[in-house]
Automatic annotation (TrEMBL):
This is Unnamed protein product. GO terms for cellular component: membrane. Its main location: membrane. It is found in: Membrane. Pfam families: Sugar_tr. Gene3D superfamilies: MFS general substrate transporter like domains.
Length: 216
């Protein structure tokens, strides 16, 4: 019971940094930190439980605490933020629904399968999850473009440019500078996302103190 309370407390506390880091360092680095950190965390109980003794069990517990720390500020919040950003307007609702459904189905599968797996092979279970996390790293590296600081229209431009130039989206995101509204329109017309008659409306920001409207 005490360990459960400590576990939950660590879980809650380590979710807090995600509010500040997700925009400060970006989605892509957090995904990578989470995958590598969780993989290393699972290797600790894997190594400790090969020879299961009371002493090695303590080391395994440290690995689990480390895992939940990495998970709480990386992989936990990102699946709720990233899918809506990388999908265009026409597919955003459906794609976000599918990603949310997949997220919960995977959670359900892990909760149901893990106890059976641990009963069969304690160390094997943690090795399996470590390998899954490490296998996730190249997928993140090559398939996940950075979206922090980008408008949804810019992200559309990134994927359209990647398709047009036969490049990986993460490369385009690294090479493409931040775009103004006019530049988004220009790129969108060239890529066929908008017609020349389409015009993106500027975002209006109301400054309540000065009671003025500023166009961004």
């Amino acid at each position: 019971m005490v360990l459960g309370g400590i576990f939950s407390t660590i879980y809650v506390l380590f979710t807090i940094p995600s509010f500040f880091l997700i925009d400060r360092i970006g989605r892509r680095p957090l995904f990578l930190i989470g995958a590598v950190g969780q993989g290393i965390s699972f290797l600790i109980p894997f190594g400790c439980l090969i020879h299961d003794t009371p002493e090695t069990a303590k080391g395994a517990a440290v690995g689990l605490f480390l895992f939940i720390s990495f998970f709480a500020f990386t992989i936990l919040p990102l699946p709720w933020v990233y899918p809506p950003e990388i999908n265009g307007l026409r597919t955003r609702t459906l794609a976000t629904s599918v990603s949310t459904c997949t997220n919960w189905l995977c959670n359900f599968a892990v909760v149901m399968i893990t106890p059976l797996f641990i009963n069969t092979s304690k160390w094997g279970c943690y090795l399996f999850f470590a390998l899954i996390n490490f296998a996730y790293v190249p997928f993140i590296w090559f398939c996940y473009p950075e979206t922090a600081g980008r408008s949804l229209e810019e992200i559309d431009i990134i994927f359209a440019t990647a398709f047009d130039q036969k490049k990986l989206p993460f490369r385009v995101a690294q090479e493409l500078p931040k775009l103004s509204l006019a530049e988004v329109e220009e790129h969108g017309v060239k890529l066929g996302l908008y017609s020349e008659n389409d015009q993106l409306k500027p975002v209006t920001v109301l400054n309540e103190k000065e009671e003025s409207v500023t166009e961004v």
